[in-house]
Amino acid sequence: MKKKKTLLSLSVVIVLVMGVISIAYAVPSYLTPLSAACPGTSCTSCHGPSGPPPFTAYGTSFSNISTHSTNPSGAIATLGCPGATPTPTPTPTPIPACTSYMYTWGACQPNGTQTPTSTIGVPAGCSGGATPLTSRTCTYTAPTCTSFTYSAWGACQPSGTQTRTVATSSPSGCTGGSPVTSQTCTYMPPGNVMLISPATSGFMWDDTYKRLGIGTTNPRWPLQIDAALPIGTFNVTDATSEGAFLVTENGNYVGSFEGFGSNFGNTALRNSISLTSQVNDLGSINLITKTGGTWLTRMFISNSGNLGIGTTTPTQTLEVNGGMRLNTSRTQPACNANTRGTFWVDQYTTGDFVDVCILSGGSYVWRTIAQ
Q1: Has residue 290 been placed in a domain?
Q2: Co-location of 20 and 75 in the same domain
Q3: Taking a C-beta distance cutoff of 8 angstroms, is the pair 75, 41 a contact?
Q4: Are 240 and 302 within one domain?
Q5: Which of 250, 245, 251, 270 is nearest to 260 (CA)?
Q6: pTM of the shown model
Q7: Interhelix angle for 57-64 vs 72-79, to 10°?
């Protein structure tokens, strides 16, 4: 019996010692930072009025934090002070459904519709709800035409005007603009026109104005030929001769368009066509086109032999006023004496190379100068 009492007393002592140890640990480990962060905190804040080991709800939450023993301040930051009203978990605000939309509309298209470039739902942040528009009808206004091409000018009328029609206009789909479809001209009325026999000859002579018409009953120039087929040929019957259309001024030779036979005296000109300008030291050759009502020289050969493209005052053998494109899709020839000095562009899907044929070290080679 005495042995049992001794064992019971020993158990009580162990329990008390463990409690003291627990309390002793709690005071420096937990209570100190709790008291610092939350004034008025005591053991009862975690264990209740009866002390440990029972736990209050706060004490249970505190002990359930895995780092409460090594980082009590972190546990306090998570739970707050004992007795504080817990921060309620915010209730998510439901996303409202869209009831309408604000649009930014793109340009009106030729088919009379336009599509939005941006769509913003109302109220802000909404989702779903009303279906947004993807297009709407609109009134299309075509752009104004700024550039035109034309047909040839018609015959000059007794009113002193001649007309033409617009062939194309730009930009695409445009309307209006200011095309030039009429201009003044000098009307030449028909004179005393008579048919040159026989009646089927097609020759008409205007004895008043001394004009000859071929294929027309109203020649307006000293010689007028109207024909659907080529108007004629220069047929050189003598192989040593030439056929020419000559231009003179007061009997002086100005220039010509000539064809030379296969046995012409100057061998360099045999079997060739020549456009000549005869005036010594002054003559030049122009290739001219008319654009937008203005005559423009496209190619010019000076009396000194300089060729100008886009310029009428070339100072070198070749002068180009503008860009020059080398677009060689053919196979590059061998580099030799005949191709020496030739530039060549090799085109590949991954890039291009610019080569020049040169004589280097006694051999002809293609040398890449740019890529």
Answers
A1: yes
A2: yes
A3: no
A4: yes
A5: 270
A6: 0.42
A7: 130
Q: Say whether 4 sits in a helix, a strand or coil.
A: helix
The pLDDT assigned to 200 comes to 62
Query: Which of helix, strand or coil describes residue 7?
Result: helix
Please name which of 88, 62, 64 lies closest in space to residue 77, comparing C-alpha atoms.
62
Cα Rg of the chain, angstroms:
52
DSSP-derived secondary structure for 12-51? HHHHHHHHHHHHHHHIIIIIHHHHHHSTT--THHHH-TT-
In a shared domain, residues 198 and 310: yes
Indicate if the pLDDT at residue 35 is higher than 80.
Answer: no
Answer yes or no: do 222 and 306 share one domain.
yes
Q: What is the pLDDT of residues 285-323, one digit of tens each?
A: 888 888 887 888 889 998 888 999 999 899 999 999 988
For range 337-364, the mean pLDDT: 90
**Can you read off the two tokens belonging to residue 83?**
């007795």
Question: 192 — phi, psi (to 5°)?
Answer: -85, 90
Q: Is residue 93, in this structure, part of any structural domain at all?
A: no
* Token representation of residue 12: 């009580």
- 297-302 contacts, C-beta under 8 A, 24 or more apart: none
Q: Which DSSP string corresponds to 131-146?
A: PPPS-EE----PPBP-
Q: What is the number of domains present in the chain?
A: 5
- Domain containing residue 363: 325-371
Kindly report the number of other CB atoms within 10 A of residue 283's CB atom: 14
CA 23 to centroid of chain Cα atoms: 82
Most confident of 28-37, 50-59, 358-367: 358-367
Question: How far lies 117's CA from each of 99, 100, 103, 120, 142, in Å?
Answer: 20, 16, 8, 10, 21
| Same domain? 368 vs 334 | yes
Confidence of residue 89 (pLDDT cuts 50, 70, 90): low
**Distance (Å, rounded) from C-alpha 274 to C-alpha 71?**
106
Q: For CA atoms 101, 107, 110, 115, give the dihedral sign.
A: negative
Query: What confidence tens digit (pLDDT) does each residue in 216-262 have?
Result: 877 877 888 877 666 666 566 666 677 777 777 776 777 888 888 88
Residues 316 and 329 in one domain: no
Q: Is residue 95 part of a domain?
A: no
pLDDT bucket at 16, cuts 50 / 70 / 90: very low
